[in-house]
Amino acid sequence: MIPDKAPKEDVFHGSEDLKRNAHVPSFEKYKELYVQSVENPAEFWGAVAKDFFWKSQHTGRFLDYNFDVTKGEIFVKCMEGATTNICYNLLDLNVHERKLGDKVAFFWEGNEPGDELTVTYRELLQMVCQFSNVLKSQGVKKGDRVSIYMPMVVELVVAMLACVRIGAVHSIVFAGFSAESLCERIMDSQCSLLITADGFYRGEKLINLKLLADEAVQKCRDKGFLIQTCIVLKHLSTDPEALVSSHSPPAKRPCPDLELPWNPDVDLCWHMLMKGASDECEPEWCESEDPLFILYTSGSTGKPKGVLHTVSGYMLYTATTFKLVFDHQPDDIYWCTADIGWITGHSYVTYGPLANGATSVLFEGLPTYPDVSRMWDIVDKYHVTKFYTAPTAIRLLMKFGNEPVQKYKRKSLKVLGTVGEPINPEAWLWYYSVVGEKRCPVVDTFWQTETGGHVLTPLPAATPLKPGSATFPFFGVVPAILNESGEELEGPSEGYLVFKQPWPGVMRTVYGNHQRFETTYFKKFPGYYVTGDGCSRDKDGYYWITGRIDDMLNVSGHLLSTAEVESALVEHKAVAEAAAVGRPHPVKGESLYCFVTLKDGLTFNQTLEAELKKQVREKIGAIATPDYIQNAPGLPKTRSGKIMRRVLRKIACNEKDLGDISTLADASVVDQLFQNRCCSAV
């Protein structure tokens, strides 16, 4: 599974400085630890567990499971019998035992440059204890679900950690989601309380979050579910009461037109509640397999799945992946640009960094506001050493050339990371060469909401890198590639990516629907966790994610990966971004219909179209030649930046019934794409 020796051709290595102090300094050490983690997980993860506080120790097997639906109910249990509290391990342990009370936990950077705040571990602990007491005063108790619908402010972290301190289960809903989406998630998890804010700016755009929250509460009421209490943070308010106990300053940009409806029977002011709350709160000691949080992810049926993670295994796994994948050192300044409303924000903005006593940047704004240099300005401002962002953001910034990056020094950077989707080699090389100046290894991480943390990833000093490859499995993770018949493929191969055994951080169930959990992830290939992603393995044993299985195309009996076609298109110097989908074809089964967004100032014409077809043909083969290439000034994306290929398939087929497109960041691009359809694609 893991090659005996690291390949030496066509690879990039970390700097010698990095290797000298790295937690995993060589490929040989990686392989030694990997073998131990797979053959003796109790010993490997037991050593990790010693870094944390346990009110009582586990009994029985360290990691117990069944992945085979034919042998009974699917389950995963880690450290059963142990009790702990994840908030205690993230905050109290760092403040009182590790003496990190005065260390900065977060540099908060607001939407507007100059809107900033510094929060230490001691200050964060005090605020969390206060808000824990607020929740208790509102009747929230262990096991209750609490919905959180907030912008990227320090109070979002406070709210989630206060929940877990008292044993409540948080369900965070991304602040870009609609009222309908919030209502659906509140009702599915039967939340007893909602926490929100008045509003926030995202770039130039004012988002009135309270109006959306009120609409969601009313929708719940119309469907027979009553939210008794809504706690409102006045983030944009200039009211004196909002400044009394709030740690986050209101945004510098005035917003006199912000409408703030108030229902005294439901709404309570965060700031007034915090004023009278004690800053001491004993943690609720929780069983290892008690629920920690629910986070909703999209499902193939259209109904979101409530992915449930539990206390101990998730804590161990996020702490370890953060420490080793980013090679965390005590003096690091770490910045993950993800919103906490997504799993990346849960695992690698909040839980993983705080478990390691890290200092992080918490960013409210956009990479292009007020200009396209904002990210690199922040890197220099805080001397960021480890930087983690999405390929979508990298491709967006590539579009503007090198100058906006190179006007800043970026000398502090040591490790770069990518998350969210496979990165095409051209974007990887730009990130490595321009942003990192060929001295920072790029950790291209593959994982899912369901996995809790990284499952395929390089390690900065240990793993030679191949642009665009997810490289090798993380410790304790055993991947396999299956064909359609469920047979394991050896050597260089391509098929379904599955995992043969659990790791501590894997999801435990779909909230309220264990049958859906088993059907979605274990029924197709009994004995394996099925990721839903296609994957190939090359001659050196490196894994390459080829995209979701439903993003695979069958053209004349040949499986084609949309990601592979898109990567070939984006390698053309004129193309900033591309998306490929299938369109029914009477002879070939499916034909390739591609959308391309050009770099600024360039024009789409027949010559360019011919060049692009030639490039794909040369990169992949004649079978992959696109039948249609459409100019796309913009692509339909969710607010998290993911391309909605379902919508593109409808456009390719000229089907106007698009279904639910409420999660689109900009619905206007859809009309433009219909107008620009290829004339011959009737």
What does this structure look like?
It is a single chain. The chain is an alpha/beta fold and 682 residues long. The protein has three domains: 16-83 and 326-548, 3-Layer(aba) Sandwich (Rossmann fold), CATH 3.40.50.12780; 120-283, 3-Layer(aba) Sandwich (Rossmann fold), CATH 3.40.50; 556-676, 2-Layer Sandwich (GMP Synthetase, Chain A, domain 3). The strands form eight sheets. An eight-stranded mixed beta sheet has the order 12-11-8-6-7-14-15-23, sandwiched between helices. Helix 7 packs across helix 8. The chain starts with 15 loop residues before the first helix and ends in a 7-residue tail after the last helix.
The total of helices stands at: 21
Report the mean per-residue pLDDT as an integer: 91
Please tell me what the overall shape is.
globular
CATH class of the largest domain: Alpha Beta
Let me know the CATH homologous superfamily of the largest domain: ANL, N-terminal domain
How large is the share of residues in beta strands? 15-25%
CATH architecture of the largest domain: 3-Layer(aba) Sandwich
Uncertain spans: none
Separation of the first and last Cα atoms: 47 Å
Helix content: 25-40%
Protein name: Acetyl-coenzyme A synthetase
Enzyme class: ligase
GO biological process, one term: acetyl-CoA biosynthetic process from acetate
EC number: 6.2.1.1
